[in-house]
Here is the input.
Amino acid sequence: MNRDHLKPDPANAAPAIQQVQAIGMVYTCPMHPEIRQDHPGNCPKCGMALEPVMPTLEEDDNSELRNFEHRFWWTLPFTAIVFVLAMAGHRLQWMDMAVQI
Ligand SMILES: [Zn+2]
Here is the structure.
């Protein structure tokens, strides 16, 4: 079976790496903030993988926050329904005790 199509294509991966490095990424160790270098690697003190330092906190590329907000607002109605059922379902005769056993 030919698995060549599963391998990452270096021709497609190279532009993304160059674009990241062009911004001026700085990599630092989570445990040793004094370690700073301009390319990914391992910390010379503890060997942990270096993580990129965010250029500014005001960058408008907060995709994780947007993802969490999206999921929060989509699940909020269901949470409210479960809350009402759990707190007042029996009193409103919406849930019969015999059904739950
Ligand atoms: Zn370190």
